[in-house]
Amino acid sequence: MKKKKLIFKIITIIVFLIMGVGLYAYKEYNRKNVDIAEAKAAYSLTDMQLINEFTQDQNTSNKKYLGKIIELVGNIKKIDTDANGYHTVVLGNAVNMNSVRCSVDSAFNKDAHNLSVGSTVVIRGICTGYNADDLGLGSDIILNRSISINK
Amino acid sequence: MKLSILLVAALSIVSVSNAQKFFTKTGKISFDATAPKSPENITGVNKTSICVIDTKTADIQFSVLMKGFEFERALMMEHFNENYVESDKFNKTTFKGTITNNESINYTKDGVYPAKVKGKLDMHGQSKDIETEGKITVKAGKIEVSASFIAQFDDFKVVIPQLVADKVAKFAKIVVDCTLDPLAK
Predict the structure, then answer these.
(1) Which residues of B make CB contacts under 8 Å with A?
(2) Most buried by CB count within 10 Å: which residue of A19, A51, A102, B45?
(3) B63 → chain A, closest CA residue
(4) Are residues A87 and A21 both part of a single domain?
(5) Do A77 and A102 sit in the same domain of this protein?
(6) What tens digit of pLDDT does each residue of B115-131 get?
């Protein structure tokens, strides 16, 4: 009798364990990309501060910022629109060649129409890297899936 | 009157052919590594690729930040970055090559030209010669580049675990789709 009870207990535990693992695997598998609008930024700074850090020490900055969500306050230098209608908001100082290129999240592409060159904006995005000045056009820091934040 | 028209025409030709270099910072490069019987698509797209073409020297270059690839599922992106291409260590993939039939492409005349490209692809710390055929479209002073080629993971020491071998193929089809603007001096 005692033995039966014990076996029953063990089976119950195993069933729950399997269910737990299954649920975790299912959730993990279906996990969506981070919602930038809801996510908290790992770092908040101005566009020029970020540019200075990257131009001074690329390796340290790469380690610090790559893959992280960054919130930038900056001046809109230019807005590029590619052949598919996707926008890239270019932040930086007009007299400085270096800039932060913020590729706008496709879900927020419409919002980019409201932005105007020369105005100050708050942009949150994922830092994906730094392109050194290969073209003589200045170096760029890239933010991906960027959105503008109304504060 | 005639002279002035001629002059304007001559000047406009000069201004078109003057642009020797073309570039973009918003090039689209995507890949498809879906295994034949996979229930889901293994695809990623990068919309912030750099591409430069020098029409005189026939040089063509690409630079792609590996962390800039976007995926449907967060888990795919993490596996891609952490396990397969190790983007913390190797954050950039570059291609440096030449357009081998450059003389048959007229960059000042609108049209679609077949293009042959040969060069070196540097990815995941490995270097490999790549040769492919694509298309160059000259339209209203811009250049559209489209091409696709296969990259074998073995060549770049990218290891796909047995566990996901039914979903992820042993190679990726890489598709290039970039529109280049003239580089103003």
Answers:
(1) 21, 23-26, 28, 47-48, 50, 52, 61, 63, 65-68, 70-71, 73-75, 77, 81, 87-88, 91-92, 144, 179, 183
(2) A102
(3) A131
(4) no
(5) yes
(6) 999 999 999 999 999 99
